[in-house]
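Worked example 2:
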Amino acid sequence: MSSDYYIDEDGLVELTGLSPRSIRSKFKQYRTDGKEYDYLGISEDAIKEKYSMKAKDIFVDVESLAIILGTTEKTIQTYKNKKIILAETNGTFNLLANLEKYNKETSEYNKILKVKRERDLLQLDIDERRYIPVELYAMFLSDTIVTFRQELLRTASGLSVNLKPMPHSQWKKYIEETLSDTLEHLNKLSDEVEEGIVEKIEKQQRLDEK
């Protein structure tokens, strides 16, 4: 089909809800020399993508993947260089495949968590001048990491399922709301784990004093 209709970048931004940068990345093959876009070509591609029974994968650009994982585009590039996530030849990312790969291979979050907890526990030891038994310390880290990992996997699985039938224009709002809920829940879980370990520490101290 010959294309007789064109749309500018601002029109596509308003129509799709994507950022100008995402528009330029996603539809670069439809961009004309006059910096407008082949509207019919984009429409045909969208119809094929939505209704083809063969196309089951969801592909996102680096900006969208960074939002989904709650990180920066620079970190995404680092993950790509380390083969934690894999990019397609056109620079996009297979969302479902990379979420699964990310959950299995990345240890970045657990490293950050471990450093933070080690610093907090060390400060507690210094301030209160009390010895924290190694077994309780290990239990605290183990319980926190397991709890956080389960919550992150639950969030990733939910995104994988719920984003698939959802219009792309609604992704950003949905992802932001989901991540906000997850962070709030993680904060509550962290407090609960910490309270449980503190109780065990106090119980151990009482036993040591007898």
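The first strand starts at residue 6 and ends at 7. The beta strands are 6-7, 37-38, 59-60, 93-94.
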